[in-house]
Amino acid sequence: MAKKQLIMEKALELFAKQGFEATSVQQITDHCGISKGAFYLSFKSKDELISALIDHFMMQITSDIDYIVKNTVSDEKLLYAFYYKIFENFNDHSDFAKILINEQTQSMNAELFSKIRHYDQLMEKNILLMVERLYSHVDRSIKYDLVYCIKGFMSMYSHLFLFFNIPLDLDVLCHSLVEKTNLLAKHTTLPFISEELMRIIEQPCQEEATKEQILEILTQKLEDIEEPIEKESLLLLKQDLLNPAFSPAIVKGLLENIRHNPHCKWISFLLRRYYKL
């Protein structure tokens, strides 16, 4: 296991027990069995480590949802697939999701808040895209309310996975939320969230990643990834970025090879946006 990954996994264990504030770098290094010097070769500070953990979790879920919204062919299956992937991610990464919920009101600095808000806005954009596709026949004035209702369902029901040790039928939950969302879309007559209000509460999003930035991330991934299929696919994608030659179908196939690897989800997300796939 790479040292950076070891530190992130061991630190997460401590953060889950003690929270961010109460966990020191010394405790993390003791738990990892490494020196402080080795820690600082990987991360400049505890905040940088926390930032890396946020990126790791949020990049995976953002990439998964972006793929589902843009690649699910059936309108009837889209909303269910969206909810299923959301709650599957919360369940699979429950320790870190619980930490994020508990810590956002306590020890996070402005930079970490801003990072989380950035990913939140990417999620909002995909939910809005989904709402506009599924409910194009209803009054457009309710679409932003629907976005916030869907986000509310995500937040409220995720607590069932994170804070209550009870058996949950994910299939039933998602079908239930699809029904609720459809009822809201059909019967809402007094929306609260307007386009003007959305503009007020939104912060400027980061610009799209440039070709150079994507190449830099690709190069780093090629050093980190050991799995042969993913590594070869990344190499071919890098070559195509430098000298475009592949058809969209080939690029899609290469992206399909890497998108399930948790360490490749973000680069697959960036490449899908770059290639407009």
TrEMBL record:
UniProt xrefs under Pfam families: TetR_N (PF00440)
Domain HTH tetR-type: 1-61
InterPro entries in the cross-refs: Homeodomain-like_sf (IPR009057), HTH-type_Tx_Regulator (IPR050624), HTH_TetR (IPR001647)
Location of the DNA-binding region in this protein: 24-43
Gene3D superfamilies: Homeodomain-like, Tetracycline Repressor, domain 2
Keywords per UniProt: DNA-binding, Repressor
Gene Ontology terms, MF aspect: DNA binding
PANTHER family tied to this protein: ACREF/ENVCD OPERON REPRESSOR-RELATED (PTHR43479), ACREF_ENVCD OPERON REPRESSOR-RELATED (PTHR43479:SF11)
Protein name according to UniProt: TetR family transcriptional regulator
Species in which this protein is naturally found: Mesobacillus foraminis
